[in-house]
Write a structure and sequence with these properties.
This protein has about 550 residues and is α+β, with helices and mostly antiparallel strands. The protein contains 18 helices and 23 strands. The protein is elongated and about 105 Å long.
């Protein structure tokens, strides 16, 4: 970091670097300091801005006499209460029209447009802009308003404020204005100045269809004007610091990329570990670099995924050889199924095919079993939408759950629909019971899942949500964790059908191969997952608060 940095920049450099928008805020701070006269020292030998203004007025008078510009009305003097901040000695508060010539754009006859580069480049608005210079897409053979070479293009409508530089004489439409600094004032100083005050200028916009500003607003806009020599020093320092910001941005992206790659590598090695010793080694590395790796939300998001994936692979917690194996759990499920069939509560279904070796994506621990999802479910089927759709929704009545209500972390009921008791009675097959798993099976939210709370009020579901009801309520929590894991989600997205709208058939869903741990281990897995996901919540909250604090510091710096 250069020793020539402004002390305020030096003090808060690390703060800017650690914030997601830190480099952007650093650039804003540089412009703020520059336009307040705090970026470079003043030189008492500089000709003051008051003398520069006299030269500008003399040049304006000459241009009027030569017929190159029209004589304009004298602008009102700047009042004390209009001045935004204290400027250094030798500077002046002026109106933009006092020190520049402003040309408002006007669109020419569309019959004069062409794409074969005949005439002048024609720019209509911000959509033609590049990073610094616009790129012509259309030319005009009979321009009405011309922005001269080395003028500043500023967007004056939808949006207001963005700027570019004009490299050659160009035709401008009414979405743009050209600002020409006079008396050898620095073009880039005015460019940086307008970029600093872009938000302020935009606040003067009016209009119901879109926001725009008039020429009157533009020429009356208040700006601080430094001596000519200082303008040049300011531009040189801004260019130097902006180049440093570019370098820092590259370094920051590289650092973030390396941190993300390192985290992904550790996660992959943990997931692919073929022994407890290998797993513990990679886990130890993770814990020893915990603070560094989990200072960004992206890695915490990946940690959530890894926790669930390790859980369903049997790597999150150690196995207990005293646990009753999953094969015994399956016998209990089959026994319960037979009882319900005998009592006429469920229909007898065809046996699902055994899970083939090639369908097993990973090795599961001893005591676990690969099964089809349908083997552990007494009910799996989509809901239905009542005749009349939204027109039959009511303010009161039975909860009617749609896909927007189903989220992995629970039900979101702020905008829940309701249906009458009578309609609910007619839709007996899609009633929801406590401990039912609800799974979105169409649309952008396909794969999202919630557990319907036990002893909650009655509910029904739409055709975009499936009900998964288990034979054994004690496996619901583990199944929900499994459904939200990358393992299960990959099955969902692999098997979805539908050209215009994603969809998941019940037949395919029932055949999904899933790993089933012993019941006692399921309980331990769920407890550990909940503990680690709560830790992820804490990490994200901590990162969020740290970013918020840095953001407040940066905003305070930019506001000055």
């Amino acid at each position: 970091m250069p020793n020539s940095l402004n002390p305020l920049l030096q003090t808060h450099f690390d703060t800017a670097l650690e914030h997601p928008n830190g480099i952007k805020k650093l650039r804003e701070l540089i412009l703020t300091l520059a336009m307040q006269g705090k970026l470079v020292p003043q030189d008492p030998n500089d000709q003051p801005a008051s003398e520069l203004l006299k030269e500008i007025q003399a040049e304006k008078a000459r241009l009027v006499a030569e017929g190159k510009i029209k004589k304009s009305e004298t602008l009102p003097a700047v009042k004390e209460e209009e001045k935004l901040f204290v400027i250094p000695k030798g500077w002046e508060w002026v109106r933009l029209g006092d020190s520049t010539h402003v040309i408002m754009g006007q669109s020419p006859d569309s019959r004069t447009y062409n794409q074969i580069a005949v005439g002048l480049p024609f720019y209509q608005g911000k959509s033609d802009y590049g990073k610094l210079y616009p790129t012509p897409k259309v030319w005009c053979s009979s321009p009405v308003k011309i922005a001269p070479k080395n003028s500043i293009l500023i967007s004056v409508r939808a949006p207001i404020g963005p700027t570019n530089l004009c490299q050659e004489d160009s035709c401008i439409g009414r979405g743009l204005s050209a600002i020409i600094p006079l008396a050898e004032c620095s073009l880039f100083f005015y460019l940086y100045l307008l970029r600093k005050f872009e938000t302020k200028l935009a606040s003067y916009g009016t209009g119901s269809t879109f926001q725009a500003i008039t020429q009157k607003v533009l020429i009356n806009f208040l700006i601080p004007l430094p001596p000519l020599a200082e303008q040049k020093r300011i531009v040189e320092k801004i260019d130097e610091l902006f180049l440093l910001c570019d370098e820092l941005e590259i370094l920051k992206k590289s650092k973030n990329s390396k941190r993300k790659d390192l985290h992904q590598s550790v996660m992959t090695q943990m997931l692919e570990a073929d022994s407890q010793e290998s797993f513990r080694k990679h886990f130890q590395f993770l814990t020893s670099h915990f603070h560094e790796l989990y200072s960004v939300k992206e890695n915490v998001k990946e940690l959530r995924k890894a926790v669930l994936q390790l859980a369903v692979m049997g790597k999150l917690i150690p196995q207990d050889p005293n646990d009753q194996p999953a094969s015994e759990l399956l016998k209990e499920i089959q026994s319960e199924k037979a009882r319900l069939v005998a009592e006429g509560k469920v229909k007898k279904s065809e046996a699902l095919p055994a899970v083939k070796e090639e369908e097993k994506p990973f090795v599961i621990p001893k005591g676990w079993e690969w099964v089809r999802l349908g083997e552990v479910l007494q009910k799996f089927g989509a809901g239905s939408t009542p005749l009349g759709g939204k027109s039959v929704y009511s303010q009161d009545g039975i909860i009617f759950l749609r896909s927007q209500n189903i989220w992995n972390d629970g039900l979101y009921l702020e905008d829940v629909a309701r249906i009458s008791k009578e309609i609910h009675e007619r839709m007996k097959g899609t009633r929801v019971l406590g401990n039912d798993l609800l799974l979105n099976i169409t649309g952008a939210s396909i794969g999202r899942s919630s557990v319907y709370p036990e002893n909650f009020e009655e509910a029904n579901v739409s055709q975009h949500v499936a009900i998964l009801r288990t034979y054994n309520m004690r496996i619901v929590s583990f199944l929900h964790k499994l459904i939200t894991s990358d393992f299960f989600q990959s099955l969902v997205f692999k098997e979805q059908v539908g050209v215009s709208r994603e969809g998941l058939s019940m037949a395919k869903l029932s055949k999904f191969p899933i790993p089933l741990p012993p019941l006692a281990e399921q309980k331990r897995i769920v407890e550990k997952v909940d503990q680690l996901l709560a830790l992820c919540d804490e990490l994200e909250e901590r990162i969020g608060k740290a970013e918020e604090k840095r953001g407040e510091i940066l905003e305070g710096m930019v506001r000055g």
